[in-house]
């Protein structure tokens, strides 16, 4: 990338500062103002991440609380069979994938603003989630799940793209992992919340499972209305930044990635993502994790209950697996960020989850099987967090990156479509089919991620040897070729 005019200054607190010098360069903005990068990052984290993490926590809570509702009598009251319940779960992901494919949400985000798009998505799915508490028939359940999937489909890929417009490449994986950790937090929080709300059974003539949907959905609606005021757009218009801080962010990103380029939207840039084999491998990386991820989050209360525990006990026993997953998601993300490696941590985490499913498949004792669920969660969530941050780090070109993020989510959630049909009533209490598929998918994930690691490593080595230097011939100053540029290096 282009080099900016700057100098590092050693200050007493040993933090790195960058001082912009006043030259006639587009990279220079102000004179003699020292900006602490560490303090600036802390400020960005404090202003951006809590709001985004809250939205994703509510998203995961509203999609997975159906598992808690099932334990509290959802299927009984709506006269659903076990297989009919699975169909409702499947329709969520069909709606999710179809809306993402037919109406790529990141393209809408790029043509609107995060402050408008993200809260609007939250408002719509919050209304749908609330209405799930008043459905009276099985067809109503199917319709609600389908539209819930449609409404939630744009949040995660949108936030991953949004973060790439604020943070440098080597800072994104940790932030995406922090954001994704809300999924495991939602699982732990959801179990406790469902246990408490279930005590409202028969209040107002409504079953406890209805109150789970209604109260959690209303919470989402209220947060979405406030979100219109606390979601920020991009650095150029962020009111919480001073002019010097805004200049510093621009300078950091200009040296590191394409985030400051004024890239016009074209369908040609969209097609670049579809023609890049690496983008499909990122999608397969998530595909092989989405099946175990969503089967665990959607069936964990049922799996634990079938081990011989009561409904109330099952709700509370979902908390420890998710708590361990939350801690490991953060810890593994920190290690990955410090070492600048992605693939080894994904493969190691997936292998840990495989151990969990081996325990679930091989030992019928309730206590031992429960430990298996902890191992499974402890591996699945850290691996997924890093996989989902990988394209944001490695795909260059704003439109291509936005498309790649959306493709990854869409391809990945096709695994969830299959997964929702695996934990059938007749396979209880051991669920050999579901556990077996989840373990097989995790093994496949190790293979896919290992393949992608080799591809990225060989591509980097080829660029080091100058195999693509000819692409720079005749290139205008300041022009950038995206991740095909010989100066670009992929994070492995």
Descriptive report:
This protein is mainly alpha-helical and 492 residues long. It has helices at 37-71, 74-77, 82-102, 105-111, 114-131, 138-152, 155-164, 169-197, 208-230, 243-256, 267-274, 277-305, 311-317, 319-339, 343-362, 366-394, 398-419, 432-464; strands at 6-10, 16-20, 34-36. It has a three-stranded antiparallel β-sheet with strand order 1-2-3. A hairpin with a 5-residue loop joins strand 1 (6-10) and strand 2. Helix 8 (169-197) packs antiparallel against helix 13 and helix 14 packs parallel to helix 16 (366-394). The chain starts with 5 loop residues before the first strand and ends in a 28-residue tail after the last helix. The model is unreliable at 1-32 (pLDDT under 50).
Number of strands: 3
Return the average pLDDT rounded to an integer: 86
Main β-sheet description: 3 strands, antiparallel
Shape: globular
Q: How much of the residues is beta strand, in percent?
A: under 5%
Q: What is the N-to-C order of secondary-structure elements (H for helix, E for strand)?
A: EEEHHHHHHHHHHHHHHHHHH
Low-confidence runs: 1-32
Distance between the ends: 19 Å
Residues in helix, %: over 70%
**CA radius of gyration:** 23 Å
Task: Name its key features.
disordered N terminus, mainly alpha, 3% strand
Quick description:
The chain contains 18 helices and 3 strands. Helix content is 70%, strand content 3%.
